[in-house]
Amino acid sequence: MKEYENLVVEMDGHVATIALHRPKALNALSLDLKREVRDALDELEADENVRCLVLAGKGRAFSAGQDLNERLDPGSPDEAGRRVRESSQFPEIFLRSRIPSISMIHGYCLGGALQMTLYTDVRVASTDAKFGLPEFERGMACIAGMYLIGGVVGLGRAMPVLLRGSDWVTAAEAKEIGLVHYVVEPDQIEARTMAMARKIAALPPAGVRATRDWKATLFRNMHGVPLEEMWEAVGRYHQQVYGTGQSQEAVGRFLTK
Description:
It is built from 11 helices and 9 strands. The strands form 2 sheets. A 6-stranded mixed sheet has the order 1-2-3-4-6-9, sandwiched between helices. Strands 5-7-8 form a 3-stranded mixed sheet.
């Protein structure tokens, strides 16, 4: 396997693991990290030996979400809307992939990282995991988060999660509302996740792939709104919000704390 600056990619039989590795930044999703995830997934896609993927994070967190240092100077409102849309669309690579995927989540799983896990097929959380979408506290709209979380846990439960901000959702709460599927103790999460991944990898792949293709079709039309229409809304609403200057001010305050 190719070596990466911001990832650790490993193979165990038919199971591949992509682990985010920016420990000093709590695995924040920088542009460079996202490019590497795309490259790593492309490499794994080309290997028919890979039948299950585990997405994880090294260090103290799964991921703290988007790298806000890259949001300090978003440019014009038009440019800001375009950049946020492109950044938010990144996790679609897991929906398009032929490989069934499991998110193995510990510590913080916030913002864009939480949204990323919703594109994977199974979400396993450690009891110490904390979930949330702090976009409102950063002066941002949360269009993709509303679409994705609303599709997974229901619209009636989505807005309260968004409005909690940094009053993080615990692993137990996340399981109760359907945001994650399994919650296990920190010292058991890797063994439990890998056992599940090996079981998935042992399945005849054709039926799994066909069903995931159909899942992707359903996923792209949640709420009766095509995914592409949602992305257009992301660009449009973020353009409006950035035009007020409130997001730049809120992000600047957060980064200078």
